[in-house]
Each structure stands twice: as structure tokens, then as C-alpha cells.
Amino acid sequence: MQKQFSRIPETEPVIELTHIYDAPRALMWELFTKPEHLKHWWGPDGFTIEHESADFRVGGYWKFVMVGPDGTRWDNYHQYTEIDPIERFVHLHGSKRDDPDAFVATITLEDRGSQTAVTLTQTFPNLQARADVMAFGAHVLGLQTLAKAETYLQNTELEGIPS
Q1: pLDDT tens digits, one per residue of 104-143
Q2: How much is the average pLDDT of 17-36?
Q3: Which CATH class, in words, describes the domain spanning 4-44+83-154?
Q4: How far apart, in whole angstroms, are the C-alpha atoms of residue 34 and residue 79?
């Protein structure tokens, strides 16, 4: 069974990535919303996260630095705009608060019995902005990030996490 899918419409400034996890939705919600988990797996292969601060609520944020394999550092700032517990959340993803180049990221968790489909939809201001991130392989790096959540899930004992 295929676990990952991507959709990149030709005429829309969107990248949509889906990964199916062998885990219940409540558990995946914890992995995608709690910095104590995110700091262990968020980011493409070879990248690490330096968590700075987080406040998971509408109007809140997650601030972190993504460190590449070569040591390059990228500031990241996610400002939460919508939260529907265990179903979906939306944030502006930029390098700083009020970043004029931020894009909208929506993470949706779909209950599929013993599995959960997590879809990350990135909506850019225009096709050129999407083309700019596609030029460095954003969709492949995004799929790597989603796959790292599965590796973390398989290799970590998550006591006290809803199942």
C-alpha cells in the first residue's frame, strides 16, 4: 500500500502532501502539535530543529530554527490562525512574525480507523512563489518530513499519549 501522495495542481499555487500513518488520529494530533515531539522529527532528512518557544492556540505561534546538514540555519515562525482539535489546524509559515512572504499551511488529520491520513496543504500567494520553493524541491522535502514523523512514531515509546 502506498503511504505517501502529492498533488501539485498546474493552475493553483498549492502543494498538497499526504502521508498515511498506522496510528490513531489523537496520537498523530499530539505528534503534530506538541513541540516536545516536533523537535525530534520535524524537517527533511538530515535537518534538525532548535525549538525556541511555542503557544499552540489561535493567535499563538511556534518559533524554531531549522538547521541543515551543512549547518545553515533558517528561522521559522508558525502563527496559528485556526485550530479544530484533532481534525485540523492552519498557520502562517514564515521566517518571522508578520513575514510578508509567509504562506498558509493547513494540516488535516483524517480518521481511517486504525490509520490516520495527515495532509499538509501549502498555499502560496501566487504560482511564482510556489515555483520558487519547488525549485529547491519543497515537495520532496515535505514528504521527507512527513516520513520522519512515522520513523519517530515507530522508534519512540510514547507513554501517556492518547491511542
Answers
A1: 999 999 999 999 999 999 999 999 999 999 998 999 999 9
A2: 95
A3: alpha beta
A4: 14
Q: What does the mean pLDDT of the chain come to?
A: 94
Query: Cα dihedral angle (11, 78, 106, 136), rounded to 10 degrees?
Result: 40
Domain boundaries, the chain: 4-44+83-154
Q: What amino acid occupies position 135?
A: A
CA distance 12 to 14: 5
Helix 138-155 / helix 127-134 crossing angle, nearest 10 deg: 60
Sheet with strand 4-7: strands edge to edge: 4-7, 14-21, 115-123, 103-112, 88-94, 73-84, 61-67, 48-54
Q: Is the pTM of this model over 0.90?
A: yes
